[in-house]
Structure formats: structure tokens, C-alpha cells
Amino acid sequence: MNLKIEQTGIDGAVVVSSTRRGDERGSFARWFCEDELAAVLGGSRIVQANNSVTPEPGTLRGMHFQHAPHAEKKLIRCIAGRVFDVVLDLRAGSPTFLQWRAVELAAGDDRAILIPEGCAHGFQVLEAGASLLYLHTAAYAPHAEGGVRYDDPRAAIAWPLPPRNLSARDLQHPLLGADFNGITP
Ligand SMILES: Cc1cn([C@H]2C[C@H](O)[C@@H](COP(=O)(O)OP(=O)(O)O[C@H]3O[C@H](C)C(=O)[C@H](O)[C@H]3O)O2)c(=O)[nH]c1=O
């Protein structure tokens, strides 16, 4: 196996670590394998790949998700810089509903986080010049996009740096009402 899967404590959210093999020319690592990840992909297939570049430390993107029937898994990897990457469980009835987990992803660490459907994703830049590679199992559907505000008290995400440079859209996500009991992906 080239890919190792570690649980995060949120069902379906896992860290995928690659084995990097070196030789006199340099090194090689596998970053994705449909067969090796079949247990966590559950038949979902990658249909889009995206990249975001975020130069300044403290900058925060998120928390984003897509509503059904456009719910998606995302496999996210940091290919430059270092980020604090967060998965937030929004699934109705989930034992970890409204819980979040964070992993640090950095260029060269050969790790990625898999965000399952029904969970929101966001990150904060820890080192200048962050670049992320996203593999998506559903096409971009702007009309189906949902968001949770980075400072929503019901999520209470502990961002390591003072958040800055948020997009107008990310600043305007509605707070989760007391009656919010989750989404069905
Ligand atoms: C996702 C997407 C976006 N766009 C356009 C829409 C905006 O004009 C611009 C940036 O989009 P947005 O502000 O939604 O992107 P981010 O806030 O960086 O969101 C990204 O980072 C957060 C943390 C995520 O989890 C999202 O999946 C990921 O897309 O690209 C497209 O044209 N195609 C696309 O597939």
C-alpha cells in the first residue's frame, strides 16, 4: 500500500499519508489511488481538481460545503506553505454534529485530508505563500453552495491566528440558528 489512512474522529474525514521513495535522482510518491482509497471514497469518483493560492498568513477561506444533490467529498493537499485545515461536521444525527477537527498540512508532508459530504471545509494560512490542491467528487455548483461563518459560536473553531482577508461572501455566511439541527448530504 502506498497510502496510509488515519481517522480524525469525524466519520469519513481522514488523513491520507503517502509513502515517498527516494533514490539518487530524487523521490517519488503516490498522492491518489482510487483502489487504495476505495474504502473512504465509497464509490465516489474525482470529477474536478482545483487550486487556491493564498499569499498572506492569517488569511482564512471557508467554511464551505455544497448542499445535496451536489454534496461532495474533497481531498485537499498543501503544495506550498503551511495551513491549519478544518473539517466541521454538519450532518444531521451525526455523533460528532457541529464538532470540528483540524490538521496542519504543509508542502512536502505528503499528507492530505479527505472531507466527506455533509461537512464544511476551511483553512487558515500559517506560512506565507500557501497553495492548495483540491480533488472534488462533485462538480462546482454555485447555486448549491452553503457556508458556515468562521466565527460561528455554535462551531467555535479555534483559529490559531487572528483571521484576516476573508472574502465578502465568507464574512456574510449566516450564523447557525439555535434550531439548526444539521443537513442531509
Ligand atoms: C470552487 C470554484 C470557485 N470558482 C470561482 C468562484 C469565485 O469567483 C472564485 C473563488 O471561489 P471561492 O471564493 O468560492 O473559493 P474559496 O473561498 O477559495 O473556496 C475554496 O476554499 C475553500 C476552503 C473550500 O473548501 C472550497 O472548496 C474551495 O473552492 O472562483 C470557480 O470558478 N470554480 C470553482 O470550482
Automatic annotation (TrEMBL):
InterPro entries: RmlC-like, RmlC-like_jellyroll, RmlC_Cupin_sf
Enzyme class: isomerase
Reaction catalyzed: dTDP-4-dehydro-6-deoxy-alpha-D-glucose = dTDP-4-dehydro-beta-L-rhamnose
EC number: 5.1.3.13
One Pfam family from the record: dTDP_sugar_isom
Role, per record: Catalyzes the epimerization of the C3' and C5'positions of dTDP-6-deoxy-D-xylo-4-hexulose, forming dTDP-6-deoxy-L-lyxo-4-hexulose.
Record-given protein name: dTDP-4-dehydrorhamnose 3,5-epimerase
Lineage, uppermost ranks: Bacteria, Pseudomonadati, Pseudomonadota, Betaproteobacteria, Burkholderiales
